[in-house]
Design goal:
The complex is a heterodimer of chains A (226) and B (255). The longest helix of chain A has 35 residues. Chain A contains eleven helices and no strands. With 226 residues, chain A is mostly helical. With 255 residues, chain B is an alpha/beta fold. Chain B contains twelve helices and ten strands. In chain B, the strands form two sheets. In chain B, strands 2-1-3-10-4 form a five-stranded mixed β-sheet, sandwiched between helices. In chain B, strands 7-6-8-5-9 form a five-stranded mixed β-sheet. Chain B is globular and about 60 Å long. The relative contact order of chain B is 0.21. Classes of the chains: A mainly alpha (226), B alpha/beta (255).
């Protein structure tokens, strides 16, 4: 049992961390573009980004299951041309998590960019800084709370994700059985003690993460006022 | 602070996760997909098997037979599939996904189980007790025990009377959980689960006669990806040994 426990926890942490890192890389330019865009298509892109917030995770899981299998054209392309069979693999649940957690990264970042005064960017440009330098040296350091929010929310939400993994994961120990699925399995086996061990761990991790987040945001706000 | 966070993320994303073995030749660890009614008996059998094969152990994932059938048709990496209904393995064989013919290993039985009432006294009439507000059955759409439960209810001409009180579990173990917690006053469960230490202590049951429903032909099949895996072959042979047959018998399976 303890072996299962650590294996599951390690897998859950790895999934949450990979998802957060990849979404940080994808989410930053996306949020920046959305915050700056004056295009009429912006609401459309925003809606797509936010869809996972309102969609039941099983819907995402269901479509991914079809997309990854040979019953659809996309699936046949992935498997036939790229040799990628993503269902029931770590790669598969990672892609599922990326879709599921996208709004938890992009929304805080977009809000962060929008809160920065336009004069900040203009000043940097007037001083001859490039767009990238401005982003890296001026904008990002000034929106640390938003960055932190995005990272923390994405990480925490991926930790507890259930529906997507249930559909495409297959509950394979050490490969796709994350903590939320393990809780479901253990409760069904009437092993309430084991289910409780996983549930308490997730509760504790989530609580510590949130306390750290609020503690830091408060400290940061106090420093700004000082 | 942010740098610490990033370092942590980078570190934990490098935590090793075991790669999926792709049907190698010779002995290799196997993953078994099994119907949820086998939960207790297979857990004990796998423990014995793994003691004999420490280098290439077997792991079991439990669920509904219909869900596994669906997952296996979509390429799920299981090596052996133990179904609660022989139909699913036969269909996989027709699709060319198996390494051989499905093997019949036991027949399942159905019980009426309750935490609060005593079905051993009134049999199926327990369902008409005014205290019964919820009746747990497995989902007949993809769980063989659910299909047989529905057949039994129709056989006793109770189906129309109780239809609105049925609650459905994803598989027979989840259904047992509804009944064991008392969320449903009664449940139509697998005999093998009713005989498990967890449920035996918690309630009482009535064994439903086999005449009330079509037999639950329990078949297993070795999947194509495991055709050269000797651990899978060894497990199949193990199922025919007296040790395995005794365990199945102990958990209420007819052999």
């Amino acid at each position: 049992m303890p072996l299962d426990y650590w294996q599951t926890l390690r897998l859950t942490l790895a999934l949450a961390a990979c998802t957060t890192l990849l979404l940080l890389v994808v989410g930053l330019p996306l949020a920046y573009a959305l915050a700056r865009s004056r295009s009429r298509l912006r609401p459309l892109v925003e809606a797509v980004v936010s869809l996972p917030l309102v969609l039941p995770p099983t819907v995402i899981g269901f479509y991914l299951l079809l997309a990854f299998s040979d019953s659809t054209a996309l699936g046949r392309f992935l498997i036939g041309r790229l040799g990628m069979s993503l269902n029931f693999t770590f790669g598969g649940i990672l892609i599922g998590s990326l879709v599921y957690s996208l709004p938890f990264m992009v929304q805080p970042l977009q809000a962060g960019f929008q809160q920065l005064p336009g004069s900040l960017t203009e000043a940097a440009y007037t001083l001859g800084k490039s767009r990238l330098t401005t982003l890296w040296r001026v904008l990002l350091p000034n929106m640390k709370p938003a960055l932190l929010n995005g990272v923390v929310l994405t990480f925490a939400h991926t930790l507890g994700e259930f529906g997507v993994v249930l559909m495409i994961g297959g509950s394979l120990p050490g490969r796709t059985r994350v903590a939320s699925i393990a809780i479901y399995d253990e409760v069904q086996s009437l092993h309430y003690a084991q289910a409780n061990a996983y549930a308490l761990t997730l509760l504790a991790v989530a609580f510590v993460i949130l306390v750290a987040l609020y503690w830091f945001t408060k400290k940061d706000a106090a420093r700004r006022l000082a | 602070m942010f740098r610490i966070l990033l370092a942590f993320l980078l570190l934990s994303s490098w935590l090793p996760t075991r790669a999926a073995p792709l049907g190698p030749a010779g002995p290799a660890p196997i993953t078994i997909a099994a119907a949820a009614d086998l939960k207790y008996v297979l857990d004990s059998l796998v423990t014995i098997f793994n003691r004999q094969h420490p280098a290439s152990p077997a792991t079991v994932v439990y669920g509904s037979s219909g869900k596994f059938y669906e997952q296996l048709s979509h390429g799920a990496p299981f090596d052996i599939f133990f179904s609660a209904d022989g139909d699913y393995p036969l269909r996989l064989q027709q699709q060319g996904l198996t390494a051989g013919a499905p093997q019949l290993y036991a027949q399942g039985r159905l019980v009426l189980w309750s935490k609060k009432l005593n079905p051993s006294l009134k049999g199926m009439n327990t369902l008409l007790d005014p205290q019964v507000r919820h009746i747990a059955i497995a989902n007949p759409a993809h769980a063989p025990y659910g299909q047989r439960a529905e057949e039994a209810l129709r056989y006793y001409q109770l189906y129309n009377q109780v239809k609105s009180r049925l609650v459905m579990g994803e598989n027979i173990a989840q259904t047992a959980q509804y009944a064991a917690t008392g969320a449903a006053e009664v449940g139509l469960l697998a005999y093998s689960l009713a005989l498990s230490p967890e449920l035996r202590r918690a309630g009482r049951f009535y064994l439903i006669p086999t005449a009330a429903h079509a037999p639950l032909q329990q078949r297993y099949v070795v999947l194509k990806r495991a055709r050269t895996n000797t651990t899978a072959t060894a497990f199949a042979a193990f199922m025919a040994t007296p040790v395995a047959r005794q365990a199945l018998h102990k958990y209420g399976f007819i052999l």
